[in-house]
TrEMBL record:
Residues 134-275 form the Phosphoribosyltransferase domain. GO terms for molecular function: ATP binding; kinase activity; magnesium ion binding; ribose phosphate diphosphokinase activity. It comes from Candidatus Criblamydia sequanensis CRIB-18. Residues 4-115 form the Ribose-phosphate pyrophosphokinase N-terminal domain. GO terms for biological process: 5-phosphoribose 1-diphosphate biosynthetic process; purine nucleotide biosynthetic process. SMART domains: Pribosyltran_N. It comes from the Bacteria. This is ribose-phosphate diphosphokinase. One of its GO terms (cellular component) is ribose phosphate diphosphokinase complex. Keywords: ATP-binding, Kinase, Nucleotide biosynthesis, Nucleotide-binding, Plasmid, Transferase.
Length: 297
């Protein structure tokens, strides 16, 4: 089946990389707003009988969802064989239970909404927390890609004598995997989150790693409070300035500038969300998983 990619605004670079790996066509679309704020979408490339890949990373998702929905529905109306969502960063994974009376479980609602108009879903390291698999939230065929091997490769190629530092107990499994593949030691911190911007982090045991380069690893860098606090601890412990690595470059508000000003030597992210820190390209493994998903769907 012929594959055609449509890139939502801001996803052009990833779409070009995926099209090259998949030997696929890139379609042209028009997405704009009417003066009253309503969305207008138009597919300028024929999609009849083709598998349509909609490439749209879902940071700041509320403004992206309607154009994404309209594009999927338009493609199906125009005869597309399927519409498959490629979203390197998947939003609305955090609120997966009712923490306070009256709260909405938005993770579940968002999953139902996406599943209603996409035939498959491909994403990278979703924030599963209390979920054992993405299929608990999405009732469509899906692929979860892990960035750990690519992060390990980057560390091996660029850092001498690293020590990896995970932010909390939830990070043990994947930080240990990155460390193992990079041939590096690791340590895990204890984190207490008092609020979105008030995070208390335990002082890491770093006495044995004074001559190592600390690598702080996390899946999402949002407010960056955890990393900033850890950078300060490492500074007081007279460690080398750390390198901060995140899979998803959310960087809410001035988080990136604050992290750099805290004393981090460098901030590196994967290219799941476009940002100037993107140094680790995941397009090859995303394309590989798209192929597998299409074969089995």
């Amino acid at each position: 089946m012929n594959i055609i990619l449509f890139s939502l605004p801001g996803n052009e670079t990833m779409s070009q990389k995926l099209a090259k790996h998949l030997n696929a066509e890139i379609g042209e679309s028009t997405i704009r707003q009417f003066p009253d704020g309503e969305s207008y979408v138009k597919l300028n490339t024929n999609v009849k009988g083709k598998c349509v890949l909609l490439v749209c990373t879902l940071n700041e998702p509320d403004n992206k969802l309607l154009p994404l929905y309209f594009l999927s529905q338009t493609a199906k109306d125009l005869g597309a064989a399927c519409t498959c969502l490629v979203t390197p960063y998947l939003a609305y994974m955090r609120q997966d239970k009712r923490f306070q009376p009256g709260e909405g479980i938005t993770s579940t609602y968002f999953g139902k909404l996406i599943s209603s108009f996409a035939d498959t879903l491909t994403t990278v390291d979703p924030h599963l927390h209390r979920r054992s698999s993405l299929s608990e939230v999405y009732n469509i065929p899906n692929k979860v890609i892990h960035a750990a091997p690519h992060i390990s490769q980057w560390i091996k190629a660029n850092i001498e004598k690293p020590v990896l530092i995970g932010p909390d107990g939830e990070s043990v499994q994947w930080v240990s995997e990155v460390a193992k593949n990079a041939g590096a030691p690791f340590t895990i911190l204890q984190k207490i989150r008092h609020s979105d911007r008030d995070v208390e982090v335990s002082i890491p045991d770093v006495e044995n790693y004074k001559d190592h380069t600390p690598i702080l690893v996390d899946d999402i860098i949002s407010t960056a409070r955890t990393m900033i606090e850890t950078v300060q601890h490492l500074k007081r412990a007279e460690m080398k300035p750390p390198i901060c690595i995140g899979v998803h470059a959310v960087f809410a508000g001035n988080a990136y500038e604050e992290l750099m000003n805290s004393g981090a030597a460098m901030v590196i992210t994967c290219n799941t969300i476009p940002h100037k820190t993107n140094k680790i390209d995941l397009s090859d493994i995303i394309a590989e998983n798209i192929r597998d998903l299409m074969k089995n769907s």
